[in-house]
Amino acid sequence: MPRSLPPARCSTRSAVGSTSRARWCGAQRPGSAEPAPRPRRGTEVVRIGIGAVAGILGGPATYARQLVGALAREGGHEYVVFTDLPDAFAALGVEVVHVPLRTPYHQLGWDHVRLPRLLAARRVDLYHGTKNVLPWRLPVRAVVTVHDLAVYACPETFAWPQRVHLRLLVPPSVARATRVIADSEHARGDLLARFTLAPGRVVAIPLGVALPPAPAGAVEGLRRRYGLGAQVVACVGTVQPRKHVERVIEAFVAADGAARGWDLVIAGRLRPGYAPAWLEALPPGVRWLGPLADDALAALYAVAEVAVSASEYEGFGLTVAEAMASGCAVVAVGASSIPEVVGDAGVLVPRSDVSLLAAALARVLAEPETRAALGARGRERAARFTWEATARRTRQVYEDVVVDNGARPPLGALAAPVVCLRSEENLGYAGGANLGIAAALERGADTVLLLNNDARVLPGATAAAVGVLVSDPRVAVVGPKVLAREDPSRLWLAWGRVTYRQSLVALCGAGEPDGPPFARERDVEWVAGCAMWLRAGALRDLGLLDEAFFAYHEEVDWCTRARSAGWRVVYCPAAVVTHTGRGTAGGPASVHIRKYFAARNTILFARKHAPLAARMKLAFFLATTLPLQLVWHWPRGTAGDVWLKIRGVRDALLGRRPPFEALGLR
Known about the structure:
- Helix 7 crosses helix 11 (354-366), helix 9 crosses helix 12 and helix 18 (588-609) packs parallel to helix 20.
- By secondary structure, the chain is an alpha/beta fold.
- It contains 20 helices and 26 strands.
C-alpha cells in the first residue's frame, strides 16, 4: 500500500503494566534521504549514570546495589555509578564516582548541587535516579524509580523534613522523567492516580531477592550473641510509624508466643527522629537487634521459621520477599503491593489489626505442618523475583531501539537513550525493519510494534492492541484505525483487501469520514503497515518480513502468510494512530520508488499467493491498464512513472535485480 517515506524509529516500551512488553520498531523507507556512508553494522553502547544512595540501610539502598550488580553482569552498556558508598560497587567493573553524603538530611545538596555538575563532567547519555527524585538541573534525559507514595498515603508517619523533601521533589521528578519505574503494579497505580502521567510512561518492574547464604557459624553466633531460643519469629524492616512494629509486638503477646517457646526478633534501621515507646520496655521473649549487616540478616532469616509484617502500605515488600526466599512462613497484611508478592504463599489478614494478626500468628506457631507448607510455597514463589529479571527489564526501559537504515543524518545522533542498529547498506523497509524486529525479539519482546516515523500512536492505543493479542493466542497481528493527521475526522486507512487488480490492493476507509462502519473490531485480510502490533510467537512461526519485497506490500505478504497458517489478522478501532501525508510525500524521487516497487511487488506477491484465476485477473488488468495509462500520460509529458511501473513488472517477471543505484537507493 502507498505510504510516505521518511525514516522511522524503533524504541522499546512497556505496554500494559508488568505483564506485556511492546517494542516499537521501524525502518527508513528507501529514497527518503540521501544514502549515508556505509557504517559498520553493530550496536552502539549507551553511557548510563545511576544515582545510588547506598550508605543508608533500607530498601532503596538494596535496590541500588543489587540493580547495578545485575546490570554490570549483563553488560552491554557503560554504567557510571554516583554513590555515597563507593566500596559497595568497587568489585563490579563499573565506573564509580564518590559523592559524599554526610547524613540523610544532606540529600538535597547531594541530588541538586553535586550531581548535575558530575553528570555533565562524566558525559553520561542517561541518568537513572534510584531513590524517588531527580536533580533539578539535568543535562540529559532521565529515568526515576519511585518506590512508593507513602508520603501521600500516610504522611503522618514521616518526619517533617522528609515529608517536605518528598512532596516538593517527587512531582517535578516524575514530570521531567522520560520514564518512571515503580516496584509493583500497586505502586504504578498510585503514581497514575496521583500525577497526570501517560500510562505508557510508567512501568512496574518487581524487585529481586538475593540473600547471600549465612556464613559458617553465623547462625549459632547470632543465637549466642542475643540469647535466642530454638524457635524464632522475625520482624525485619526500617522501624518507622507506618510499619506498625508495635502491633507485631502486641500480636505476639496476644498469641502467647513467649509462653509457646518462641522469640520475636525485631531488626532494622531506626528512622532518624523516631523513638517508639516499645523500645523502653520490651515484653518477655521480644528482642531488638537494630540494623544488621547482610551476613547477620541472612543468619537471622536462617534462624527464623516465621516472619511477620504489620505494614499496611508497601511499594513492594522486599523484606517479606526475602523472608519467603529463606523459607519462613509469612504472616502479613493483604494490602497495597503485598498480595502481588505473597500470593497464596503466606497468611494474609485483611487489615493491620492486632486481633487479626494475633489469630493468624497463633495458628502458624501452633501448626508445624502449616509452617512447613507455607515455607515451601514461599521459597517457590520468591524464586520468581530475581535481580537479573529486574535488570533486564530496567535495561529495556533504558533502551530505545533505533534502526539506522542508511539514513542521513544517522539516527544514532538522536537523543539518548538509544541502541542504534546500523546496516552497511540500505536494506529497504523490509530489511531495515527486520533488523529492529530481530533486536527486539533477542531482548525478549512479547509484542513488536512496527511503526513509521510519520505515524503517531495516540494514548491508549498500545493498551488496546495488546489487549486484543492477550485475549486470543491465535491473533498474529493487530492493526490500528489510522486517522489523517491533517484532518483527524477522516481516515488515512482502516484495513485493506487484496483485489488482484492493477494496484493489487484496495484501501478500505481511505479518505472517508470516521464513523460507525469503522468502529467494530474485525478480522481482515491485512492491516496498515505504518503501525502493526505483531506477536513475537507469530514472528517466530512465520518468519520476519520478506526482504525480497524491499519496500511496499511487505505487510500485505506477511498478513497473507499469517492467515494461510491459521493465524488471525485483526483490525482494532480502539488502537488509534495518526499519519501524515499520502501519495507524493517525500518528493518526486520517493514517488518514482513507490511506482516501481509497487508494480514489481504486485508480481512477487501474486507468484507467492495467487491461485490461477487470480493470476489471470491480474494479468488482464495490467495488460489493459498500463498501455492506456501510457497513451494518456505520453502527450502530457508524464509518462515516466508509467514506464517505471512497466519496468517493475518486467523485472519481476524476468527475475532481474531492482535498479537501486538509478533510484538513488544505494
